[in-house]
Specification:
single chain; alpha+beta; Aminopeptidase; seven-stranded mixed beta sheet; globular
Length: 134
């Protein structure tokens, strides 16, 4: 398995363990990594949950999109996904960045000790970034 396959598998397992009763999760592995969710009901509503670009040369992971359906919010799922990507990246000496941030999400991550990068809508996630506690 490739680095990308391992990361996608790790994320899919987490999502299935947390929300598998209501959703199915699948992934794409092309120019970027994406995890999609499909609601287990007649609507079969589908949406992209997370998109990650990888720069292997510079050993960097860029989370450019996190979108959670309303039912998956308020369970810290988004922050846990970022934490998983960061943890996985550190195991392979990759830095993790969250990019294309809205102003409010940027401020929330900054309060949780994400590090400014000099680019307004991008923060770096570090060991000090508090993603799992209040």
């Amino acid at each position: 398995m490739t680095f990308e396959d391992h990361l996608l598998d790790y994320l899919r397992q987490f999502l299935t363990g947390q929300h598998g009763q209501d959703y199915e999760f699948c992934e794409t592995n092309g120019d970027c990594l994406e995890i999609l969710c499909i609601k287990k009901d007649p609507s079969a509503e589908k949406c992209m949950i997370i998109r990650i670009f990888i720069n292997h040369e510079r050993r960097q992971l860029f989370i450019t999109n996190i979108f959670l359906p309303q039912a998956l919010r308020r369970h810290r799922t988004g922050k846990k996904l970022i934490a998983i990507v960061h943890y996985f990246g550190t195991q392979f000496n990759y830095d993790t960045f969250v990019a294309d941030l809205t102003d409010t999400f940027r401020e929330r991550l900054f309060r949780r000790k994400a590090v400014q990068t000099g680019i307004f809508d991008m923060l770096q996630i570090t060991q000090e970034t508090n993603l799992l506690e209040d």
